[in-house]
Every structure is written in C-alpha cells, then in structure tokens.
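seq:
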Amino acid sequence: HTTRRGPEATSRIAMSLPKLEFAKTGRSTCRECGEGIAQGVMRVGIEAFVAGRVCDCWSHVKCSLGAMFLEKCTAARGKCKATDEPFKKGDVRLAVCSKAHKAYYSMAGMGDAVRPIVEASEGEYTASDITGFLALSKEERAAVCAAIDVKATASAKKRSRRGSDFTIAEVTMAAEKDEKKAAADTPASANRRSGRQSSAVSAPPAPATPAEDEEGEEAGDSDGLTEFERQREELIARNKARMAALNIGTLASEVATASAKPANGPSQRGIGSKRKKEPKEDAGPPRRSLRGQKIAPDATLAGGVDYERRDGTVILANGMYSGSGTRSDSPPPPSRPTGDVKLNSVNGEESADEAFISFLRDTLSGVTAASSDFGDGVTIKHDRGSFTSAKSLVGAKIKLMDESVAKVVPRGVTHLDLAPYDPDGPLVAAAGDKDGNVGLWRVDYEAPGGADDEGDGSDDGVLFYKPHGSYICHLKWGRGGLAGRLLTCAYDGAVRTLDAEKGVFTELFVSEDEDEFSACDVTADGRTIHLSDNVGNYHVVDARSGKLTSPVVQLHEKKINTVHLEPGAERVVATSCGDQTVCVWDVRKCGKGAKPLSRLQHSKSCQAAYFAPNGSGELLTTCYDDLIRVWRPKSGADAGSVNDDPKSCLKIKHNNQTGRWVLPFRAVWTPAGDGVVIGSMRREIEVFESSCGKLAGKYSDAERMTAIASRYAVHPSKDIIAAGTASGRLHIYRK
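struct:
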C-alpha cells in the first residue's frame, strides 16, 4: 500500500525537512564549525527558534552529517518531523543537529530528510558513517541503510545539469515516483534494488545458511574485507560516480569562483597599511613579591606612598620616586615632551618628513603671511552664502570611496579638523588621539612610482607625530591671527601650534601645577587662549608671553568638557560640564565669584556646547539625556546671553548612549550655521535642520565605515564631512 500525499501534506513536509541549497550569498556562517559559508557552496539548513523568532540555521554539508546521530527512544515522547507520527519507546530515530537545535526523524522519515544530504557529500558519507550506527542491531542497521543509501532520481539529474538548486522535498517527491515504478517490477529486480530504495524500510534479510556463511568468509578473507565493508566500498564508489555524472562539484566551484569577492573590513590605508609590525619586547621573568622570593621587606618603604603622579609613578613618604617596579632618588623622566617638538614623524623616514614639511610650507605660506596683519579688535566676518550649508550637503549627494578612508592615528580619534584655507587647494585633514598623537593626512595625495616599495610612510599621504604625552582635548586649524597653524592642547597641560615654517610644534603654554586641560579655545587674533581643566577651573593665557593674564578661577565643580567663544565680538564664552549644566559667561567678568549670564539646566551630563558660527547667538548642546538642544539668544537688555527657559529651546531626539567603549557624541554646526551634524549608533552621519529639527539627510557605508563615528568636522567651503572613529580612522564623505 502506497500513501498518497496531497498538496498540503507535501507542503508541510517541505517545511519540516532540512533545506539543501547553494548559498545565495557569502554572509551565512556554519553553526557547527563557526566558519563562513561561501557563495555557491552547498549548505544544509534546519528551522529553529532563535532569539524570539523562527529562522534557518545553516551548516556545511559535511559538518551537518558529522553532527547527526542515531539513537533509540528512551521514552514515548516527541514526534517525527517528516511523518508527524509519535515516537514509541525503543524506536530508532535520527537527529539532524545545528549546534543546540535538533530535529528528529523516524525510520520512515529519515530517508526523505537525510538522503539528499548524503548524496551531496560526494560519496564521503554513507549511513554507516552516522554516529550511533554501530550501536544498532543488525536488522536496524540494514533498515537505516535501506532508508538512506539510495540512487539519485532522473529528475534530480536533469535539474543538476541545468545548474539549478534542489531541495529535499523535490528529491522526496521524485523518489516516491521511483518507488511506484519499483513496485511494478518483478520480485527479482525489486530485490536487486532493495539496498537503494529511497524511503520504505526493507524487511530484515533471511538468515544465511552455513554453506553461505563459509562462502562469505572465504570471499572476505580473499581481499581482507568483510561483507559489510565490501558493500560500503561499493556504495562509496557508486556515489562518487553519481556525483561526477551530475557535475555538482564542478558547478558549485564555478559559481563560488565567479562570485568571489574580497573580504570586507576596515580600510588598511594610512599608518596601518603595509607596515611591518615591530617584534614584541621580551616581557622578562614573571613578577614575584618579595615574600614569594623569600626576601626581607625593604625598611625604606615602611612609610608608604605619599601621592601618585599623572604618569603612574609614585612619590614615597621618604621622598624617593617609585615606578615600574624600581626605586630611585632621582625624579623620573617627564611624561610629556618639553620645549618645541620637531616634526619627526613616528611612522615615516627622514625623506618623508622633509617632503611633508615642504608641502605644508608651500600650501600654508601665503595664509601664514597674511595672519601677521591680523591685529587687535579685528573680527572674522561671516558671509553665510560662502560657507557650507546643510542644504548644500544634502544636495551634493556625498559618499565614501576607498581612497577616502585611512588610519591617521594609532588610537581613537578625539578631535579632528580640515584645513579651511584654499577651496581649490589640496585637502589636508588633522586628527588627535587618546595617547597624544597628532596625524596629518594629504587626502588627495598620489604616491609617485616606486614609493610603495620604500615603506617610508608617505605612500598614503599620512604621517603622525607625538607632540603630547596624553589625551588630545583640542585640535583646530587656526584662523585670523593663527591662520596656517594647527593648535593642539592635551591633558598633559601643554598647548602647542604646528609651525610649518620652522618645522616644529611650538610650545605656547605649559602648566606648572600639573593641570590636566580638558578643553580649549582661542580668540580670532590668536593672542588669548581660554582653557579649562578636569576639576572645573578656568584659565586665560597670553599666547605671546606664555603666561596667565588673570588668576585661575573655578567656574564648575566638575570637569568642563568644552569651552567656546561666541564668534564675532567674542565677549561671552560657553562652558559645558558634567554637573548637568551649560553656562554662558561674560569674558570681561570671569573673576573670582563670577556668576553666569545664563545657566542652561539639563537632566544629565552635557558633553558639548558650541555657538553658531554665523554670529546669530544660538547655542548647540549635546546631552546624555538623548536630546540635542538649540538654545535661542535673549533680546533687548540681556543681549549676549542665552534664553535659559527649557521650553524655549528646540529639542531634537537622538540616541546619545554611546556606552563605555565609544567616545560621547558631540554635535557640531554646519559652517553656515543652518544645520547640525552628529553621528549615530547605526554607524551613520546625520544632518539636522537647526531651524526645525528635521532630519535633512544621513550618510553611511557599511563596508567602508565599520565603526561608530563620534567626532566630525565639516569643511568651511566644500561639501565635505570628515568623521573619526575609535580605530583611529578618518572617513571623508565627498562628491
């Protein structure tokens, strides 16, 4: 009796059986070995409930067969996935696994489930290779072999010649047609095919006579194989011939080769490209305590530690210095460079440094000469029409390209800027990182012939320097009186400018009290530096003399994150702090006991506060409460201050929860002052309209920007956005 399956039953079986197909893309991963499954390679999938949804779990054909196992039911629980019949205690069942997920099939259903997978193994696997096979009885092993080891149907061969994928359900339906045809054959022909039937379980073979056993033993001794092993070898040979006839292996390899793509990943341009890693220094013997070494304690250490320095060394109570396991009467070397620092790059050779300095001189000489005419009281005029606007950025359809991504600094980018001087000149990007490194990148640089073989660091136009000893808290190309110079400030308490004419990082100011500067800004004439530190103090420094112009005053009780002068008259300064406030101060009245003109209260820590560059007096703040705010200026007698009414400001909802490993977002203005640029936790760059808070555009490239960008800069006159990530890479979005 043959059971006829209707369309609904066939559809149900197709949904419950494993899937066998050529991988459509190269994105899937084998659940067993953990390696990727290349496009065009045969894969096996089973449905499983993962992360609250039903999905296909994929495995390599060989990995899937290796994970299968046969067992006997220890209790009457569960149903066969193919026949939907319940298992009885003692029944033989087959488990198809995908890591922790299992699908069980009875003796009547395992042929439909596993037969095509065995065929796809190109003869390397048979029923006897499945785990648990040898633990079954002789009759049960024969039944499993009859259910699984079958020949391919004629229709399956035709589909393979056409190069099309086939599913287990299709092979099952074709095998049923073969069963009907076999039932009409003579008993003798049916017996000859009994070892290759597709799904019906064959009856146990009749017991052999003593004479047949003797003949079998003699035959087995003649070639050293038992009858079972001989049958297995015949099955392997037949399966290999069948797969060769179907040409599946060749077709799969051709498809995989044709669709092969280079592995996606972060760009290797810049300081990470073609560099030979220096061998790791020998760590030396393991550190052991004096007690473990059976050495008496040092009496000079009985007084303990007096205090710890910024660089990790400690001052003992007896006045000695201690650090890195050693003690000395002499002070440790300074944790930051002292004096002017020459432009000797870390990753380049002397020839590359000379060529880069020459380039900077030629590019910035005219701008630097003009800055000397910038006198006191002169302000920078802002012509909104000549600056990059949010509308022009959106209309330009900027994007990332392979040559627009490079690793510029070794650690995460903390600040970056684009040289704003010549709209038609070369594009130069600068970035600072967490370790005090400053990287310079000639974005449009093309290496001359043979430069790739020199390995001097100039092949990608990137060189980085070490002018500071710790976290860069400010980096900006100067304008007005500092035009042509790059201003940098760091936690090491030093402020420097890159002077291309002299080929050095000039030291403008160094704190004598080991202050850790956290924010910085400079007036348009380049003569006054406004600094803040990690304990809320405010410093005003004369850049020409390198001395404080007034005593240090405490404006906040916690770290000040940003300091920004209002463009134009520069009479007010905004400070953002971790105490959940942004304050606007009168620069002329920032003495002891100073009170803010406006106190803008937030619900969580504020990471940034920047005045609009167009002189409108609007203030942009970024807060951990998932809001970007645009505060409007007050009018009338309170001109110069900001309206501190929370209801009056524009609120833009934005996910600012960057977590522990990504620097906090800091929204910045577009140069025209009509838009806001900020990163996204979805690895995007977003542009909002500052007038209404509407999202004007967003930019992303999953293949080229593989990390979250938390620092950004917009070119003043070109439709270009630069984004920096925690990997030290800069991504230049442009036309």
